[in-house]
Specification:
Blueprint lengths: L2 H12 L1 H8 L3 H7 L16 H12 L3 H9 L19 H24 L6 H26 L11
Helix pairs in contact: 2-3, 6-7
């Protein structure tokens, strides 16, 4: 789905007039955001929208923290999809499953160490937990994509 289609779908839920009023923008601008924008096509009536601009920020800076922030604001989180065949995923199912368990154990260890000393989780400790959690989520996503791509095959019985 293209950015203008995503914005149109979102705007249609409450109406362009209500969205524009809430954002303190003109209805015309919001309508333009919901139309296709192509700088090479003089007949395209849309305007570059905030989603396109956010994508440009990520592309130019190479920093996904703005997307992470947006995901957090929406009540979620960003987990990057692996590109191609992940170099750290072998075709051995058991080894990959053990890696998941190991990283989950590391997450639990991080939580345990955070509360051992005083029974509380301080902001710096929360940051370490978040880091461990993000690493674990990425590992699980890589594993799930590998499963979806059929990377794990059973070995034929040797006679």
């Amino acid at each position: 789905m293209r950015s203008h289609e995503v914005l149109k779908r979102a705007a249609d839920k409450i109406g362009v007039k209500a969205l524009a009023a809430e954002l303190r923008l003109s209805q015309a601008l919001v309508y333009k955001w919901c139309q296709e924008s192509d700088p090479d096509d003089k007949d395209a009536s849309g305007a570059r929208n905030p989603l396109d601009r956010l994508a440009d920020i990520v592309r130019v800076t190479g920093d996904q923290s703005v997307v992470n922030w947006l995901c957090h604001e929406a009540g979620g989180f960003l987990v990057m999809n692996p590109k191609g065949r992940p170099p750290d995923v072998s075709t051995e199912l058991l080894g990959n499953t053990q890696r998941l368990v190991k990283e989950f154990s590391q997450l639990l260890l991080t939580v345990t160490r955070s509360i051992e000393d005083d029974g509380e989780i301080e902001p710096v400790e929360a940051d370490r937990i978040r880091e461990s959690w993000e690493l674990f989520k990425g590992t699980v996503e890589t594993f799930a994509v590998a499963c979806e791509r059929g990377m794990f095959h059973s070995r034929p019985n040797e006679a």
